[in-house]
Specification:
heterodimer, A: about 375 residues, mainly alpha, 3-stranded mixed beta sheet, globular, B: mainly alpha
């Protein structure tokens, strides 16, 4: 690797950093991460890149990659940019699944494309932090969990049920659930213990050696797991949305199972029915993560949204149910809005859309204020 | 739901992980202590997995793909490693195994 190209890459970074170095964040973990970036940048700036060996050049180039990805996501997570309320819900879910949840920061990058939800693992699981600690003596206390959110949907809480699925990809990757499931299926197949019902979920395996489809199997297991992960928090809501955006596609692709099959698995999970694939996933999840896939939302009944007021949320499990509540309302006939508020004319679909999303956001916001207040009260009382 | 094809994504992640470990091995083979402790941790777990002292549920999830790859492609080299005294030849063998496996995922 040419050292002059490393210098070019660092110059590119220097220009990008000029825009990001003054970012303001709302929480201490991001502020601390940012301070480490400042420190890292200054140390790199003081280096003589031309004197580096071949392997040191590759090493530094990786650090620059790390820096660029970090600022891409931190730029989307500043005080003015971050979709604060949805992140709070995801943080609650993260707490359920990761004991050392303080070691992670959920950050978002706002992206083009209405269905462009995705999870980016590069900074969460890459070896960048080891390189930086060994090379510059800088230790990042928290790693970034990077989630891409369509910029037009940051405050669409109906569509944002997809983010629970995306967080599932982080959990899957952290505990290697799909990788273990794939290895186990191949092992069971070779040991003659393959359950014939699996063909319903992996039809491409008929007459084939599963090893040939190892990557497809992995992807499909991953999607099934993430659907179940999301269903713990938002029930069948994700399936409703998924069915629409995939146009109810009955066929699988190399990366995704058929939507109808995915929706069916989630339905069985919510209804507490037995299922070969689901049982397999549930048992591997416990072994790999010491955590359990289970319904983690608490249903409530309310007419507050029809009365145009936020719902008072009392727990994290009710917080997650807000999404289901919003979806139920969207799928209802909307007559109550007009009746309860004695409106002369019915509201338009877009007005209902705005009302539901604004009220979900306000309900989450009120819950955040309330729980923060209780936390401060406890601290000042002690 | 993911915009990124999970298969391609996983493939890239795995390739990226292998390339990091190869970089670390190059440092150690150049006589630098940097990354040695980190690599030794991975190698020790691979030895445990190959010898049946650990299962895939017990090994580090951070380095899962590397450890299982070493088990899959380097059974014999891994089995002969003395965890308490990892030699230069061991790092060289591991490098060969990972280079071979990265050719297969390329």
């Amino acid at each position: 690797m040419n050292n002059k190209l490393l210098q070019l890459n660092f110059s590119q970074l220097e220009s990008a950093w000029k825009k990001s170095k003054n970012n303001l964040y709302s929480d201490t973990k991001k502020i601390s991460y940012h301070k480490n970036l400042v420190d890292l940048f200054n140390k790199m700036k003081a280096e003589d890149f031309l004197g580096l060996s071949e392997i040191e050049t590759v090493e530094r180039s990786r650090v620059i990659d790390f820096f660029f990805i970090s600022i891409t996501f931190l730029d989307g997570s500043t005080v003015s940019q971050i979709p604060f309320e949805i992140i709070k819900c995801l943080e609650e879910a993260l707490t359920d699944w990761v004991d050392e949840h303080d070691d992670f920061i959920i950050v978002t990058s706002l992206v083009k494309g209405i269905n462009a939800f995705s999870f980016d693992t590069r900074l969460t699981f890459g070896d960048y932090y080891i390189i930086i600690e060994e090379t510059y003596g800088i230790k990042f206390e928290s790693k970034l969990i990077q989630i891409n959110v369509p910029e037009t949907l940051t405050r669409d809480y109906l569509a944002n049920v997809a983010l629970y699925h995306e967080l599932g990809h982080f959990i899957d990757r952290k505990y290697r659930i799909s990788e273990i499931l794939t290895k186990k299926l191949i092992f069971d197949f070779r040991a003659g213990k393959f359950h014939i019902k699996f063909y319903d979920y992996f039809p491409f395996l008929k007459g084939a050696d599963p090893q040939t489809f190892v990557n497809v199997l992995f992807s499909h297991f991953s999607e099934y797991f993430c659907d179940l992960f999301a269903a713990q928090y938002v029930g069948k809501s994700l399936g409703i949305y998924l069915d629409y955006i995939t146009k109810g596609n009955p066929n699988h692709s190399n990366s995704h199972p058929a939507t109808s099959v995915r929706v069916d698995v989630v339905s069985k999970f919510i209804n507490g029915e037995n299922d070969v694939l689901m049982d397999e996933i549930l048992s591997v999840v416990v072994l790999a993560s010491r955590k359990e896939l289970k319904k983690r939302y608490k249903e409530f009944s309310s007419t507050d949204f029809e009365n145009l007021i936020p719902v008072e949320i009392n727990s994290a499990s009710e917080l997650h149910y807000l999404f289901v509540y919003g979806w139920n309302l969207w799928l209802s006939d909307w007559n109550e809005f007009q009746k309860v508020n004695e409106m002369a004319f019915p509201l338009s679909p877009n007005q209902i859309y705005e009302i539901i999303n604004n009220l979900i956001e306000k309900s989450i916001g009120n819950y955040i204020v309330k729980t923060n207040w209780e936390k401060y009260k406890d601290v000042s009382a002690s | 739901m993911q915009i990124l094809n999970p298969m391609l994504y996983t493939h890239n992640q795995e390739a990226n992980k292998i390339s990091s470990i190869l970089l670390f091995l190059n440092f150690v083979l150049n006589g630098e202590e940097k990354y040695k402790e980190y690599l030794d941790g991975i190698i020790s777990e691979a030895v445990d997995l190959v010898k049946g002292e650990k299962t895939i549920f017990d090994i580090s999830k951070d380095n899962f793909s590397i450890i299982t790859k070493l088990q899959e492609y380097g059974q014999e080299s891994i089995k002969s490693i003395d965890k308490a005294k990892i030699e230069k030849i061991d790092y060289q063998n591991i490098k060969k195994v990972l280079e071979q496996s990265s050719l297969e995922i390329a």
